Amino acid sequence: MKSLILGTAALALTAGMGLADTVRLGTEGAYAPWNFVNDAGEIDGFERELGDELCKRAELTCEWVKNDWDSIIPNLVSGNYDTIIAGMSITDERDEVIDFTQAYTPPDPSAYLAQSADVDLAGGVIAAQATTIQAAFIAEQGWTLVEFATPEETVAAVRSGEADAVLADNSFIDTMVGDGLVKLERTESIGGGVGMGFRESDAELRGKFDAAIQSMKDDGTLNTLIAKWEVASQW
Amino acid sequence: MSCVETIQAYAFRSLGFGERLLPKGEYTLCEHFTLIGSGMIWNVYFGVLALLTGFFLAVALAVGKSNANPMWRKPAEWFIFVFRGSPLFIQFFFAYACFLSLKGVSNFFDPFTSAWLGALIVLFFNTAAYSGEIFYGALLSIPKGDIEAADAYGMTGWTRFRRITFPTMMRLAWPAYTNEAIFLFHATTLVFFSGFPAWRQKGDALYYASYFADKTFNPFVPYPILAFYFILLTLLIISIFGFVNRRLNKHLPQERRSKTKLKLNLIR
Amino acid sequence: MFSYCTDPSTLEGLSWLSCYLTTGKHMNLYISVFVVLVLLAITAPVALLFGFGAASAARSKFLPLRWFGMGYTSIVRGVPDIAFFLFFVIALDQAFEWMRHKVKCPDWDQPIRQGIDFVVCDAAKLPLSTAPQWVHETYGFFLAVLTFSIVFGAFAANVLYGAMRAVPRAQIETAEAYGMTSRQAFWRILVPQMWVYALPGLSNLWMVLIKATPLLFLLGVEDIVYWARELGGTKTARFTDYPHPNWHVWYFAALLVFYLCFTKVSEVALDRIMKRLTKGQATAGGEAQRKAAA
Q1: Which domains does chain C have, with CATH numbers?
Q2: Cβ separation of A37 and C222 shorter than 8 Å?
Q3: What is the pTM of this model?
Q4: Going from the N-terminus, what domains does chain B have, and what CATH number goes with each?
Q5: A65 in helix, strand or coil?
Q6: pLDDT above 90 for A15
Q7: What's the Cα-to-Cα distance from C154 to each of B38, B138, B180, B219, C191, rounded to whole Å?
């Protein structure tokens, strides 16, 4: 009897790792051009295309799941989805609790958006989304930091004059330039490249995606995709 | 850093004193408790001030709503309806947008977009509307005999209100008002969560709790600590309000006193 | 949606708006309205049930049960709902999976907590990872209902506890005089009569519950506020056929109207229920109704 149960347990285990299983991809859906919800109400963007292609190469069935950014890692480690693919920079802090694949975009500097090009950063008010690496960076510089709950509000703050500049990812700033707002020359090299996050106990799945990313890097399709969505610099 | 040093560095961080940079790297339990506790200063600030100021507006609203003259009644009714009928975060949103545009009109409105004033005003209106409704309900259930007795003594207008109507209204409304106070303190967590921006990482308890949750990726430590602080706060509110309740009912015979207490547990 | 919507950039005015408001994304907003309404419709009775259970427990003669009832009401009431939602759903989900794990995979030899990871056997996963997306969403919805019910059940318990004690003592004494057991007196006399005392508090709670729905997104349910925030944000031409500046004000104004209407409808409905409940009750309101009828 006991061996029978063991057998089925082992079967369930292997089946879990097998091809029949659906891999659930967790993303935020509010971070154009990386991932966002398009007019049709579906998840779209650079990572949507990338994720679908990676799943194809790794021969996995994938499914997209949206999750709030603040709880995206707790929900991964708790097993509600299998991987995070949400424009997440590889940082030491995150690396301590989850494992990353190799980066699929190179480190991209963060950029400033302001009403005029000659804004005084040290003496002014700099906006950032609350609890991001940009917010931590501004705080470390000793500048006046003002944090908003969403990226949208940070830009609105610059527009209304509440803040003098906003510091955010280059690709996000690029989508907001214009209509009286300019990007500053100065950039900050904070954060690493962007990678997919996995549970530390899920090394096998991570390996599959890691290999798929490598193959996309090798044949140049990744660079084409990066260029198409203008998310970062090329490899 | 020992725990005592942590407390010295961060006990008043939410007000901008002490260590400028928030803790990094280790995130000890001591740091959790100190910073989240420091954030509680803001929750208490918002709660206490909104409650104190809102009280007076609430009384005015209750009297206004029970007034026969529609010129007084209608505005009070609408005020209560709008603030009780909409989620707090929408009120924060519109207030912030409104203060922001007023800022362009005059320098006088500069501080209004900061949480310490802007959010306080919203919470003040909000609690005034909720308490106003409670007081209004109490006003309606004042025993007819009390008013008739006052009339018989020749009391009118202000004197009657001050000596008869108001104290009875308070006594009847108090248990429900206690609950409103608890809800108000809970609502203060929304200020920085979705409403007003946090300047120089000075925020309330929830702000620091989510800071830790974001750094450690473990929601099971900071949020229960936050919950712990709020349970303490709630117990404190209940005991203070209970003390006032005993004062309000001091003149009543023992048996009737306990009866009112029970009966009024029911609103909220 | 409409045939003329193929190239929105050529459209103007009302036809543009009609296309804009019927995009798939807006459909999600409309669906979320129903989701919220359904959630409220399920949560209210469940929370009431929890509240009733806890209130009865708090009156129990059995001490541990009484402690449980009292503890649940006072602790959950003391915690702000946001703080509760931010960690409780994950905890609840993990608790369910842990229990299934214990039952389904008794021979599992790896630790369940691996560092911060929570690992249970595949058969214990809720829902199974092979399950289609709608099952996951339904499960998420169910967790949200449960969490909401636990929180509001505590408030309801407080109200019902007060209501049970507000039923005149004489009513119970009369029941006992007629030879009813205490259980019979509870179910036949106390419970039917307590509602009229509980209703003011419960209706207030219903209003608070309606206004807690914006927090649903913390529980993983995409509610109206989530979609309004998402749709109202600045949209550049690169990512949509319907570019527009920040329209949060309009979307939130629509939400404001929605919530105010909902509140008004609830007030009217609760008023009617109150009138029905008062009928024939030994209260001032019931007395007034009797007099009016006579």
Answers
A1: 3-293 (1.10.3720.10)
A2: no
A3: 0.89
A4: 3-266 (1.10.3720.10)
A5: strand
A6: no
A7: 28, 24, 15, 23, 18
